[in-house]
Amino acid sequence: MTDAAGTLVYFYRDCVFRVSDGVQPPKAGSLFFCRHLDVRAGERMLEIGAGLGFAAVLAARAGARVVATDVVPGAVEAMRANAALNGVTLDARLGDCYAPVRDERFDLVCSNPPQMPTPPDRERHDATAAADNGGPDGWRVLDRVIAGAPAHLVPGGRLVFTIFAFLGCKTALAKLDAAGLTPRIVASEVQTFPRIGYERLEHLRATDAEATLPSGLPDRVERFVVEGRLG
Ligand SMILES: C[S@@+](CC[C@H](N)C(=O)[O-])C[C@H]1O[C@@H](n2cnc3c(N)ncnc32)[C@H](O)[C@@H]1O
After folding, report:
1. Is the CB of 118 under 6 A from ligand 1?
2. Would the pTM count as exceeding 0.70?
3. Cα angle 184, 188, 191; round to 5
4. Which of 49, 146, 156, 225 could form a disulfide with 186 if both were Cys (CB 3.0 to 4.6 A apart)?
């Protein structure tokens, strides 16, 4: 498991993940997301934007039947490799949002999506941008994840995702309600303010509709795991 450029490896509990080039290593948000993914053995789970397969592998090890997707081909290869490294099987698929699962339904649809509000002149089209950038207000991928959830959940199924406080907790609950999902906050956690957030702080302030950011330089940010339940 070595090559000329070296290999980044991430250990978590009794699992090991290879972090390949261009695919984000698990971050505070990934760990928070996984800790609050209440997935049961036998459930069918879809993770949109699975990256190197951290949550997807842990869910498969807990006995879930997992479909994991990403728009970045290297991420799909990484999640397949990480599933094999950890002795589980994942159905890893390449594609945008729900495109890889057209008519399929799941007990749990989940995502720790790219959600950093991004000024239009900072948009890029590379794997790092795909992992971070959430469009002008941070909701670009999430809005589509929410809109498509009712058609991809079984009755009683759950959509679960993370948001930074500056995307707006009330906004998240209202969006779920408008999509016909019963919303609730599953968990909150205060994390270190993300480095990329400092780089675009003025833009974050301009899009912070629920006025969550302090006037000085923030050093912490609250993060939420949010659920919408169908029926
Ligand atoms: C913040 S990273 C999270 C990765 C991983 N789930 C985790 O928690 O560590 C977001 C992931 O979503 C993927 N992504 C971005 N836009 C997407 C889209 N439209 N459809 C599917 N995946 C997408 C990115 O390539 C990236 O792997």
Report:
1. no
2. yes
3. 150
4. 225
